[in-house]
Description:
Layout: E1 2-3, E2 9-11, E3 14-18, H1 23-31, E4 37-41, E5 48-55, E6 58-65, H2 68-84, E7 94-99, H3 107-121, H4 128-142
Antiparallel strand pairs: 1-2, 2-3, 3-7, 4-7, 5-6
Amino acid sequence: MDTDDRGFQVIDGRPYVELTENGWGAVIATVAEQHRVRRGTLAIADYTTTIVHERDGLRWSESVPRSESDQRSIDDDIDEYLVAAGLPPRPRGFRWFIEVPPSVPNADEFWRSIVGRFGESTSIAPDNVETREALTVIIREMWDEPSA
């Protein structure tokens, strides 16, 4: 998969952002219009897990290849988040991507826009259902033309 100079993955000639591998990314993939979402095979060998050690006042970290157990734990947490948000669990074994609206100049701005709008439209500590409702509105509005 190619990445363009704006930080987008190019799929079928169109720009996409890889969704985060957490509850937010899974909610976005679920609530977005299906034609805007793509998935690709997840190769866990391409990912690492950072282990932080602390002993006798010293702290160090190491990166190790992600294990099947790590991936199962990540997927279990994501499915738990989705179910608490009133959504079905997602299929496992995939990377998820969402098409980028034409008005978004780069990948960082895509996430900045979502996070900013989320903070403006939710309570201080939104639960999973409020998160789903807010992200549904934000994602749908990102492709709407501004009203005149």
